């Protein structure tokens, strides 16, 4: 496997904002906005479903701290946190990552979807998810 993020970590060639035991942050080559940063686990996990909960927690902790740093250092009043995971999600690099994009009022970009999915389900998706969570919780205890 030749993962671009694993290579950045292994070769220490990222433009690092933070490097911690389980997670790191670096600026991408083509940022959406000044200060756009990627947060990635230091070990390879393809997506959210195969990442251990403690690594997800460490990732979100760094995301939150970065958002605070963006407010303090860049005067960004808001952030978008973006992630794609798995087939059909438009995940560009199969290594779990979170884009933390600083935002300013009237900054001219939109990171929000402009349409809705054409995919349709039979049944109420909220009820289906609630039932699946109950089943998953029962198998985990």
Automatic annotation (TrEMBL):
Chain ranges for the short sequence motif Histidine triad motif as given in the UniProt record: 95-99
InterPro entries per the UniProt record, alphabetical: Histidine_triad_CS (IPR019808), Histidine_triad_HIT (IPR001310), HIT-like (IPR011146), HIT-like_sf (IPR036265)
Record Gene3D superfamilies: HIT-like
PROSITE patterns hit by this protein: HIT_1, HIT_2
Domain HIT: 4-110
A UniProt-annotated Pfam family: HIT
Domain of life: Bacteria
Protein name, as recorded: HIT domain-containing protein
Organism: Streptomyces hydrogenans
């Amino acid at each position: 496997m030749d993962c671009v993020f694993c290579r950045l970590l292994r070769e220490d060639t990222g433009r690092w904002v933070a490097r911690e035991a389980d997670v790191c942050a670096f600026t991408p080559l083509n940022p959406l906005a000044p200060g756009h940063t990627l947060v990635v686990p230091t070990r390879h996990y393809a997506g959210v479903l195969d990442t251990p909960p403690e690594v997800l927690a460490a990732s979100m902790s760094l995301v939150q701290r970065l958002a605070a740093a963006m407010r303090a250092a860049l005067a960004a009043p808001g952030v978008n946190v973006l992630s794609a995971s798995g087939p059909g999600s438009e995940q560009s690099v199969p290594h779990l990552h979170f884009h933390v994009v600083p935002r300013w009022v009237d900054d001219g970009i939109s990171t929000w979807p402009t349409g809705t999915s054409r995919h349709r389900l039979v049944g109420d998706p909220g009820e289906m998810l609630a039932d699946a969570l109950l089943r998953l919780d029962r198998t985990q205890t």
